[in-house]
Amino acid sequence: MYLKSIEIHGFKSFANRIKFDFHNGITAIVGPNGSGKSNVADAVRWVLGEQRIKQLRGASMQDVIFSGTELRKPLGYAYVAITLDNSDHSLAIDYDEVTVSRRLYRSGESEYMINGNACRLKDVNELFYDTGIGKEGYSIIGQGQIDQILSSKPEDRRNLFDEAAGIVKFKLRKEAAVKKLEDEKVNLTRLNDILSELEKQIKPLEKQSDVAKEYLKDREQLKTLDVNMFLLDNEKLKSQLEDTEKKYKIANDDLTETSAKYDQAKEEYDRVALVLEDLDKEIEEARTRMTDTSVMKEKLEGQIGILNEQIKAASGSDQHFQTRKEAISAEIAEKNREKDKVLEEKKKIDEELAGLLKNREAVSIKLNEVMQTIHSVNDSIEEYKSSIIETLNARATIKSRQSSLKTMKEQINIRKAELTSRLVRAQSDETKQEETIRQLREQFEKVNEVIRELNGRQTEIETQLTDIKTVLTEKDNDLRNTQNLFHQEKSRLEALANLTERYEGYGGSVKKVMERKDEEKGIIGVVADIVKTQAKYETAIEIALGGNIQNIVTDDEETAKKMIGYLKSTKAGRATFLPLTSIRDPQEFKTPEVLKEKGVIGMADELVDTDPKYRDVAKAMLGRIVVVDQVDNAVKIARKFHYGIRMVTLEGELLVPGGAISGGAFKNNSNLLGRRREMAELEAHVKQYEKDIAQFQKEIEETKTHRNELRVTLESTKTELQNRFIEQNTARLNVVKEEERKKEAEGNFTDLKTENDEIENKIREIATQEQEAEESLTGSIRTEQTCTEKIAELQEQLTGLQEKEQEESAKVSEAELSGSRIQQKQEFEQQNLDRIDAEIASRQADLDEVLSSMKTNADELARKQKDIESIRQTIDSSVNVQSDTKKALEDKLKQKEELSAKQKAFFTDREELSERKSALDKDVTRLGAQKEKFEGLIEGQINYMWDEYEITLSDAAALKDPEMTNVSAMKHQISVLKDAIRKLGDVNVNAIEDYKNLMERYTFMKTQHDDLVTAEKQLHEIIAELDTSMRNQFTEQFDRINTEFDKVFKEMFGGGKGSLELVEDEDVLEAGIRIIAQPPGKKLQNMMQLSGGEKALTAIALLFAIQNLKPSPFCLLDEIEAALDENNVVRFAKYLHKLKYTQFIVITHRRGTMDSADRLYGITMQEKGVSALVSVNLIDKELTN
User: Fold this and answer.
1) Cα-to-chain-centroid distance, residue 1031
2) pLDDT tens digit string along 1009-1023?
3) pTM score, whole prediction
């Protein structure tokens, strides 16, 4: 894979559309300063997704769009596209060529595209994972990044090494897993809150369910007794009814007989009339059928004619298909004969081509032999040229040495003169030196005083920073704690709101009705929605309400009736409704003196807050219930008032008239009444936490700002202190130097004489060296002359060989031309052969189509013949039906005449029966009234059974117990059961189903909770596994990079040592990386003590080491060798050629780099502010020369 091209339009200084085409190898981009060379690197970084505008050397992202010049208007967008060759499918995309583009408009809209398809920045990043390409990779090294690699902190170098080690994708997967783990934890918190709420409801609902079961059990026993009592009463009433019915029957029999005869006469008359009416209809229908049968027969005969025509047409088509089949078969045979001829011709051409190829191979061998000889001669010429160059270099060294000796000689003479002068000045300078030393010491003390002040200021600022760090840590802890509380309370609020909206804890029928609240405007809500009370009264009020808390308040009775009908139609259960129009003027409390008793808090309805329009509802349910502080006081009051008052205590004990007391511990109370209060409290807490979080964040930001200001002050203090240290060191050195001068002056005569003798010896040595250099220079000139003569001889031999090469090349070209002609003939014959095969295949397909059509046509003929036979059978059947219909019509006309005559004889008999019927009717009416009385009593009992138990008489008979005959005992048992049911209080029968549903939901939520716990565990395992894989891979790759870095470092520096170290006591995945460099001949030292060139060369060595181990497809270098000297530039350029698997694009202005490039692109700015492109192909230029 390599970079094929970069297309730029409207990006920074590239106003015109410019395209850079690249090939494998090294491409250099050159140009004067400010021409826009580095904008190419910025464009590539930008299209790969760079979002940090500082990396693009701008103030805002709009700065990358061409902003115009004096002569040009600004452009509306910037566009950059890079195209990569992906024929080896290094990128995980099914294309041999991949184009990634980015476009930014001035409006701020931005788009990324891959091969013309819109995509996300994430898709671009994922495409280049672990390739070294990308804004964080090592494929683009810009200006200043070389220094950053060495000067940045150890932990800031991680990105480069993570990309080189190939663990970036693992880190991203880990980040995704950690984020998912956080989401799972949030979901787990929500589920825990929901489970907590459900657990609160389970126990109360379980208790209600048990009460409901006990109620249903007593109710069933009561039903059995009631039904048997009903059956006994029913038998007695039936006996009385039977006596009355006997009397009634005697009177009624005559009336019935007479009425029967009257009715029979009337019915017979009506029957005859109906029969006559039916006969008229049947006669009309028969006539219609006869007409329809005739029409249908004509229609079917027409269909037969159409089918016969279709059969005739199909027969003609079959003949056509047969003719076409024979024609196509003949064409296929003709094409096969033509194919045989072409194959025979192609065989001859193949044989001729084989002979030509053999001849061309022989000529090529001769040409290669001549070229090898030329190559050998060229190598010899190059060796002699190298000898001349080495000789010239040696001569230059000798001349340089001569010049150095001359310079040394002159310097020694000057030094000798200086020694003489110093002897004279030594005595006069002593007094001046003492004064100078005194002044320098005073200056040294002043600098020391300033340093002491600065040290004190630095210590004070560092103390403040330490205190700020402690404050920030505390505030961060407070912020995190507040955020945790905020999330917990918010989760509880959402869970509680969810339960409230779905009316969890209420009966199924109540939920059904409340689901229609938005549709049915007359529904106000449940009782718990309209009443509120203080938290300390909630338990007492909820116990006082009991099952009434689930009653539904409506505007009027019509809404209540409508909702009851809805519950019946959906079989959703029963519910109690409280219409505001019917609950008015509730009864007053009849024993107000109770309110003066000890421990009485008040009436229950006075302890709740509600809208005035709902006050009657609250009073109806709570107006006769007294709230007492504790059970002892309640028991005393009950005794005093003869157990006739309903009371409830603050802890939830309920005392009902008759003396019963309900109470005990209730765990996980559903607290339906307190839900909305709790939601309001939670909302207040959440808002307060939000304010606290904002305040903490503000305080932390202010503290950080103050900390940053102190850091700036500390940095400036350190800088000033550093400058003062330099001044101190300078002053101390000046004092020491001046004292040394004084000591030197004191013993100058002896030292100066010794030095003078040494100078004389040095002058003699220089004279000897000058003579040796002159002799070497003469030998060098002779060597150059010898090599020049050898080169001239070899050039003459090379000329003859080149002429022979041209002759052999001409022969090879002629052989290749002949071969090309034969190959063209071969290709032409092959094309003919392919064409004939295609035509044969096409005609064969036509033949198959004709055969298929013939088969289809035959099937169609058979089907139409079958249809004709079926239609003829239908016609025969219709003829028979018409004959039968005509006969039936004649019979019905005859029957009509007979019935018309009979109808006239009924009028006389009817008048006589009417008079007799009127007389009997009076007796029957009297007995009938008596009978209806007994029937009414029986029906009343039956209605009672239906209303109370929804059973019929037959159902009751099935429940009859033969042993239940003692009426008085049965009445006693009924009284006991009713009393037991009354003591149970308000019973929520739906609690059984609600409890079942709640347990199902709790079980489901519990399963979800367990699944989330398992998922959390699995995510921890995945993260641990990723950490292990990343540690192993990073450690392995880091060791390899370290080894390769040392190897490249030695090659780039010509020796020395380079190494990498992980910061100790840190996790290998987070540890910083130290770079240690020891150039040859120097001690191991801090990176900051290296020169600028040494730093640059060290960073380049690290980059080349990474490219050796994990080469990126292409690498764009922006003036990274700017700090190198000429020798190191040559080493840098030479090493680029060693990295064969990476394509290099180098932005440079160094000649050594340009000389090593295969191609040059020049960037100029002929028009001010607009970059233009000039290219030079160095490879093509070399071949031409």
Assistant:
1) 27
2) 788 788 778 878 888
3) 0.40
